[in-house]
Amino acid sequence: LKDSKIMDNEIKELMIPHEKVAHVQSTNPLDHALLVLIKSGYTAIPVLDTEYKVQGQISKAQILDSILGIERIEMERLHDYKVSEVMTSKVPRMHKNETFGKALMLSINHPFVCIEDHDQSFIGMMTRRSILALIHRHLGR
Amino acid sequence: LKDSKIMDNEIKELMIPHEKVAHVQSTNPLDHALLVLIKSGYTAIPVLDTEYKVQGQISKAQILDSILGIERIEMERLHDYKVSEVMTSKVPRMHKNETFGKALMLSINHPFVCIEDHDQSFIGMMTRRSILALIHRHLGR
Ligand SMILES: Nc1ncnc2c1ncn2[C@@H]1O[C@@H]2COP(=O)(O)O[C@H]3[C@@H](O)[C@H](n4cnc5c(N)ncnc54)O[C@@H]3COP(=O)(O)O[C@H]2[C@H]1O
Ligand SMILES: Nc1ncnc2c1ncn2[C@@H]1O[C@@H]2COP(=O)(O)O[C@H]3[C@@H](O)[C@H](n4cnc5c(N)ncnc54)O[C@@H]3COP(=O)(O)O[C@H]2[C@H]1O
Predict the structure, then answer these.
(1) pLDDT, position B73
(2) pLDDT band at A69, cuts 50/70/90?
(3) Residues A8-21: what's their mean pLDDT?
(4) For position B9, what pLDDT does the model report?
(5) How far is CA B16 from CA A23, A101, A110, B13, in A?
(6) Which chain A positions have a beta carbon within 8 Å of B75's beta carbon?
(7) How far is A133 from chain B (nearest CA, A)?
(8) Which residue has the higher pLDDT, B124 or A12?
(9) Which one of B41, B104, B133 has the shortest CB-CB distance to A132?
(10) From CA B17, how far away is CA B15, in angstroms rounded?
């Protein structure tokens, strides 16, 4: 299991394809990012650039922290900031031809891992949930 | 691995003991809960009652959703609500003498699992992180 390539059939099906991943661009204003985060219900989502390359990730907590300085959150100030000013560039990524063991190792400290193609473009995401589901199926046998 | 009891030495060390778990009580006001959530940095934390029994869990998103109805978040209204009015009671729990397989199964759809003693009092939490770290150690051999 550990050494199978993540593009083996069984594991490839686990990946959430890029078209189903909620994401924002680094040049988007923060009010747009907060809207996408609240609507999707996710804690954190990937940030891509215009060429679909992974730049980092952004979370609701980061957006709220950046402007929570005063008692009220001033929603109108959100539009003046860009995602790139608040996001973290520390997001785990791996290549589509690497092993399941690598995805498992990265998922220990990160809720999701971004999967990249040969030209480093974003092709999908591996979540802790899908990794745990596969392991549970394998241990069960 | 799957059938070992979660209180086997190796697995017991994985559990975060209750004194290290950030939590609130169901009777606490929401402004207190938001403060604990923001200070701890966690997405969601357990809610206990006065007898240290698990009542549910509460997240930043739930608190913000409950009052986001208008443009500005009115911080002063937070004090008027109780945690019990906003929390979700759907939180996975298991008994300290159950198996690792059960903790793994519950962690597929939940970021953490609450561990209870014979009298159902809260003794600690198993996180996806600790489950993935143990699996990675075992698969490595
Ligand atoms: N709408 C929903 N339906 C069913 N279950 C839901 C759900 N939203 C959250 N969950 C559950 O809660 C876990 C934590 O979600 P969270 O949003 O904190 O953290 C998520 C989120 O930050 C990100 N993520 C997952 N799916 C995504 C997607 N389609 N687009 C963008 N980000 C995604 O990856 C993290 C880990 O996801 P994972 O699935 O392992 O783990 C998820 C899943 O088990
Ligand atoms: N201060 C910190 N230091 C290092 N890494 C950190 C961290 N805060 C978060 N992380 C990383 O981010 C993951 C998701 O954290 P989150 O707060 O969304 O979701 C957390 C949080 O809701 C809860 N949790 C974890 N530890 C807790 C504690 N001591 N008290 C209360 N709740 C806790 O369990 C969920 C899953 O935790 P898990 O460790 O599997 O997964 C954590 C961990 O890998």
Answers:
(1) 57
(2) low
(3) 89
(4) 79
(5) 32, 25, 18, 8
(6) 71-72
(7) 6
(8) B124
(9) B104
(10) 6
Q: Write the single-letter amino acid at B99.
A: T
pLDDT at position A129 is 97
Distance CA A10, CA A5 (A): 10
Residue-wise pLDDT tens digits, A99-111: 999 999 999 999 9
Residue A71 confidence (pLDDT): 46
pLDDT at res. A13: 84
Q: Which ranges of chain B have pLDDT less than 50?
A: 71
- Among protein residues, the one whose CA lies closest to atom 2 of ligand 2: B41
Task: Measure the CA–CA gap between B126 and B16, rounded to whole angstroms.
Answer: 6
What's the CA gap between A14 and B3, in Å, rounded?
A: 25
Which of B33, B20, B86, B91 shows the shortest CA–CA distance to B57?
B91
Check CB contact under 8 Å for A74 and B72.
yes
Contact assessment for residue A31 and residue A79, using Cβ atoms and an 8 Å cutoff: yes
Most informative mutation of B45, B57, B112, B113 for ligand 2 (most atoms within 8 A of CB) = B112
Calculate how close chain A gets to B40, using CA atoms only, in Å: 11
What are the beta bridge partners of residue B59?
B44
pLDDT at B141: 64
Q: How far is CA A96 from the centre of its chain?
A: 15
From the number of C-beta atoms within 10 Å of its C-beta (0-12, 13-18, 19+), residue B50 rates as exposed
Residue B54 to residue B92: CA distance in whole angstroms: 10
What does pLDDT average to over chain A?
90
Strand ranges inside chain B, DSSP E? 16-17, 24-25, 44-48, 54-59, 93-95, 112-116, 122-127
Q: How far is the CA of B16 from the centre of ligand 1 (A)?
A: 22
